[in-house]
Structures are given as C-alpha cells and as structure tokens.
Specification:
The complex is a heterodimer of chains A (about 325) and B (about 525). By secondary structure, chain A is mostly helical. Chain A has 15 helices and no strands. Chain A has two domains: about 100 residues, no CATH class; about 190 residues, MetI-like (MetI-like fold), CATH 1.10.3720. Chain A is globular, with a radius of gyration of 24 Å. Chain B is of the alpha+beta class and about 525 residues long. Classes of the chains: A mainly alpha (about 325), B alpha+beta (about 525).
Amino acid sequence: MAYYLRRAGNSLLLLLLTVSFVFIAGRMIGDPALNMLGPGASEVALEKLRRAAGLNDPIWLQYIRYVGNLLTGDFGVSYRFGYSVLPSEDLDEIGQPVIDIVIERLPATFLLAAVAMGVAVPLGVLMGVVAAAHPRSVADRIVTIIALAGVSVVQFWLGLMLIVFFAVQLGWLPTGGYGGFHHVILPALTLAARPIGRIAQITRSAMLDEMSKPYVVTARAKGVREWQIVFVHALKNAAVPIITMIGDELSALLTGAILVEKIFAWPGIGLLIIDSLTRSDLPLIQASIAVVATLVVVVNLMVDFSYRLVNPRIKLGTRA
Amino acid sequence: MTKLSRVFGFAAISAIIAVVVASSSLLAAPMKGTLVVAVNQEPQDLAAQGAYKEINAPGLRNVLETLIAVDPVSGEFIPVLATDWERIDGSTLRFTIRDGVSFHDGTDMSSEAVAESINWVWSLENAFTIQEYAGPGEITAAAIDDSTVEVRSSEPDPLLEFRMSLNGISSPAQLANNPARHFDTPVGTGPYSFVEWKQGQYWSATYNADWWGLEADDAYGTTKPEFADLKFVFRSEDAARVAMVQSGESQLAMFPSADECARAADEEGYSCVTGPSTTYLYGRLDHSLHADERLQDPRIREAIFAAIDIEGIADLYGMASVPQGQLGARGTIGFNDALQPYAYNPERAMELLEAAKSDGVDVDGLKIEVVGRDTTPRIKPIVEAIGAMLGLSNIGSDIRVQTPAEFNPRVRITGYSNEPGRQMMQVHVKQNPSGDYGLLLLSNYACPNIDDPTGPSRSSVYCDEEFDSQLSEALASFGDERGERMRELVQYVHDRHLIVPLALLDRGHLVEAGLDFTFGTDHRIQAVYLASAE
C-alpha cells in the first residue's frame, strides 16, 4: 500500500510540474493577448483581452489563481469566442469552459487509441511469440522485418499512402473525418504501425529469454504440448516487459496521435492541441496538456499496478 | 349536381392545386444534394465581422450577406441587401435597403437592424479584426427612415463603398438576446442558413427557401442555388484535401498547393482552377527608423534589390506571378503602369557596393537578416534562396524562419525600436484587397508613432515628412486626382528601394468535373457562383 501511495504522490507532483511548466511556457513565448489576436489587433482589443483574462496581474498572482482554479476543476474559459468583446463580468456564464471542450474531444481520442491498441497488442504479441517460438526461421525473419518497418515508418507518409490506396484508389474507406466505425480504420492502422513493431520486438526478446530457461526444458521433457509451453507458461512469465511496453505505447498514442489526427482530421485531443496552439488560446492549451498529462500518469499507474495481477510473485517497491 | 359530387369536385380541385403547388415548389427547390468543400482551416469564429476575409471563415458569405458586394467577374460593386446607394459627400453613403428581407431567425431586416449590425461590426469599442480594413475615420450607421440607412465616416473616406462590401449583416435580435452565440451561430439573410458547427470537423448550412434572391431580379449569382446543403470540412493537409475530391467525398478543395493541384488535375475528372489573389509576397528592408546606418545609403538598398532574382522567387513559390514593381494589380487606384520589377543584376549590385565602399561605407560588414514567418507557405526555401542570391553579390546574410510569437513583435514599431542598428529584410505576405493604394502606402511608408503603437502605420520602418505630407493630401482626394497623386507616391517609394515585391500569389482550387466555379480575387466560395457546367 505504501508503494501505491508513494507512486500516486509522485504522479501528482509530476502533474503539478507539468501544468506549472505549461503555465510558464505560455507566458514566455510572448504576450498571450497579442499572440491570440494577432499583430493587426488594436491596443483597445488587446487591453480588453488582457483585462478580461487577468493577464495584467502579476505573474505570481496569475499562477496562484491558475493552480487554485485547477484544484477546483476550473480551467477557465476559451479566449476564442468574443472573449475580448463580451462583457467580462458575464464571461463565466457565456464563455465556453475549456474543460468542456477538452472532454468533448476525449471520446474520439479514446476510440482511436483503443482501436489502434486493439490491433497492435494481439498482432504484436502474436508476431513476437511466433518469431520467438521459431528462432532464425523464415517466420522469425519476416516478423523482424515487419517490426522494424513498423517502428521506422514515418506516420505522415504511411497515413497519406493509406488514404491514396484505400480511399482514393479502392474507394473502400473515407479519407478521414469522424463518424462511423469505418472512419477510424485508416487512422488506427497508421497509429498502430509503431506499437505493432515495438510490441513484436519486445515480445520476441522476452520470449526468447523465457524459452531458454530450465522450466521450459523440464516442461518439454514432461511432454507438455509446445503451444501450452509457449502461450501458457512462457508468455505469462514474459508479460511484465510486454505490459510495460504496451503502457509506454498507450501513453505515446495519447500524446503522439497529433500528427495522425491532423492528417485524418480526427477530432481528438491531439488536433485540439494543434488548434489551440495555432490560435494561442492559452486556457485551452493549458487544459488540453493538463488532461493529456493526467491520462499518461494514470496509464503508467495502471501499468505499475497491473504487474502484480499478472505475476503475484512480484514485490512492488522493494529494492533488490 | 348533388351535394356529394360538389364535395368530391371541391376535393379534386383542391388536390390538383396542392399537386401543382407542391410540384412548383419542388421545381424551385435545389436539385442536388450536399456541396462538400474541403477547406484548409477551421474558422476562428463565425461572427459577422469575420465575413470581411474569406480565409477567416470560408463559406460564411453563404449565410451572412453584405449591403453591397464586389462582382467576382467585373470587379464592380453590385447590390445585395441594398438595392441602391449614393454618395452624399466625401464621408457619407446612403443605402436604400431591400424590402421584405428576413433574417434566418425570422426577424425583419429593418433599416434599424442594418444600422445596428454595421455599428456592432465597426465599433471601436469592440475592436474586431475588421479594423485592419478601417479607413481614416470611425464608421457609424443610422437609420434615416424605414428603408434608408446612412453610413458615415468621421473623416472623408473615398473607399467607404469598399468597406461596406466587407461587413456581414447579422441579426441584432441575436446580439440582444444571446450575444455569445453570435460567435458560433451566424444568423444572416443569405441563401443558406446555418445548421451546426462540429468543432474540429466541419460547419454546415442548409438551403434557405425564403431567400430574397429567389424572387429579386437583381440578385447576384445563379439566384437558384443548386445544392440543398453546404458542408465546409476542415482538412489542413493539402494532400488530404485533394484526396477528398479524388475519392468523391468533396466537390471542391480550397487552396491545395500548386504541386498537389496540378498533379490531381492531370487525371481526368478534376480541374485545377487558379486565379490571382490580392496577396503579395514582399521583402521589406529596414530603412530609416532604428536601422543600421548603411541601409540609409540608397546605393546599398538598390544593390540588395538588384541581387534578388524576383522571377526565380516567384517560380520557387509556385502558383504565383511576378508583380509589376508594386504591391497592387492593374485597376488598383494609383497603379503605376510605368513601373517594372527591380531588375536582377548581380554585376550592378556589386558595382554599387564597390562605389559605396570607395566612399568609406563598410559594405563587407553588412549582414542582412532575412526573416520569414513560419506560417507563410514555402518560406524556408524562399529565405534561403534570397540569402544565397545576396551571397552571389557578396552581401552577407543571416537566414531565419520565426514563429508568429517571435516574428510579429519585430514587425511593429514597439518591437523593432528595441533593436537599434537592425539590418533586417522581413519576407512576408501582405494583402491589398481595397482596389486602392491608400491604406497600403499608409501602413508601409508613413512615419509610425511610437506613442501610438496601434496606429495605421505601426508596421512602417520608413519616415519621410515630405512623403507623409503628400500622402495626407492624396488620401483626402477623390477621383482622377486621387489616382494621379497615388501613382506619383507609388513611383516615389519604388525609386527609394524600400520594399521589393517578390510575387503576386495566385490561388487555386481543385474542382470536380462538371462544376463551374466563379470567383474573384477574394476567392470567396459561394454556392450561388457554383453551377453545373453547361
């Protein structure tokens, strides 16, 4: 229990550091009001935005207010819709809370990540297991090449190639957008390429390690069927590094889907981050990154906690 | 005839009338489904003021209309929500508004409503970005009677008609009752009424069966829009927008890159339609204000411009032509037909530098900082090419591509006054949509006031009181006199080698075969200008 509490505490500290960094960075890249309204904005408009957003206050006061509001779940209101025009006293009522905008985008991101991992995990594990079960065979070489290609391929190129082939040439799938299940296939495949490769690589490596251990030799001597040795005994023991890798890849999907969401106009949180950065909508940038950071922290905690589920002999938080 | 047969007879006649009415309304209804347009960016918002520039909110003019508009073919002003207009004096226009027009929320477009909408858009208090196209004075409007609206500028404004062709007229009832929705739910009078905006995905509109243009004999465009619905889908990647047309998901892709557009048009079934815009790529050299003293030597500036192969830069940009030595096209008030692009002549550049050197100018220490903003297409190879061209004429350079946050403050007087001794050539894009040189000369060449960092010349690096005096007179003049005065000033600044026009940008659209798309230099996407090919 102490280990879990310590990990949760560390995670909270990490989150605080992340949101603080985003807060400081947002103010170091220039005047947030000028960035938002652009160089053509008049001083009247700039001043109205600064006043409405509290940007004229000392930075420490802004920071305390920001962190205080975060603790109550208040991420502020988007600068986007008439923030500089509408009466500032009514903003809380008529402004668009950024957390609502972020939450609205989460299902799309979750769906994309779930489908991508739904493809990547079974395929990657299966490929790795097959390769490890037949080392130096043709299958092993094919898996190694595919895994390397998956890890190395440039997502932008792969996404466009999939669009050209499946949407333009064959006409089977849409070029992008958000709607039915068929919309998620191409972006999910693009996103899954790297995790497939990495999971296959780590699975192969972990499985090769397990397959050379004495208990496998014993099992074989006892006449246990090969598939049982591979899938029931060895794979279970090799699960910890594979789960770690899956956790890493899931975190990467949540934070690194930006490019794929942009190519396929997938309205997830990655696209929202790009949009909010393009528009210099500071509250939205802060909220998007804080939510993504929270997701990553939660995924990593879940991975940590899952170790004991797959292997009860593991003692968490103890030094060797 | 029995009572029963009379009843049947009446019912039959009623049925026939109903069928005829239904048929005629069906005939009048649009025949096609949804026009899907792949646009390159999501709007910042859909407020009425944003209708002044198509790139702000592509397609918004289908929902929000203006009092008058610029005809995409002739370039002349045409009636829209005003049936007539007259100039009362240098600062006043009087509009007769169209009778019987309703906003999409059902409220009448009265003269008071029009005046209120204009005042909202041009309000200095609101300070919307449309102010970048504001004139010398504050614009206000007032209803004179039920059908007349008077628009006044606090200073004489020869371009007041142009400014009135920019602002969308939206429902004041919405502003009164639900002001926040003004920014994401436009309520106008156009042939299409707004349906929804799925942020991150698209915004859509549906055919307005009550549109005034269906019955008016002076309506713009086809007057019979062919599409039942409009959908503007946001796809920032050029290749993805082109793929949408190629896969049949969209009929029109806005602003694909020159390469993508040409490549797609090689195949049957699509055409890449291009046309000039009012946007220029230019290089602005630091000059008199806070600049390195050497740049005040006219020989140095001429040498720098002579070292740049303008034709090469226009080619490199793609989908662009070489401007005629000025930031305006033929037809612009003040266009100087006698001007030519600065000639590419490295030998001349080196001679000028040598002459300056022999007079003691330290030309060897020159290091021109060629800076572009990363939001400008192809800016990196362009600034690199300019740097390489300067190098061929033995002019040192330092190449930078900066983010808006870094670049924008350096463009304004409050920013560059903090960089004394600067040797910067800002490579950027600028629009000149007004059909007049006034605003352009004011913003680029008039003395900026450090105490008024939001003044119209806040981005000028030039200061010449004689020029300012002549410009003031030119700005206050009308008609032929204005044209002549502007022409002289355009020549004046050209001869001083302050800004080098590098390219007049064309814009292109990939269009599905069988669709005729008419657009002007503003490249507006309006369904009434999209029709099936004959």
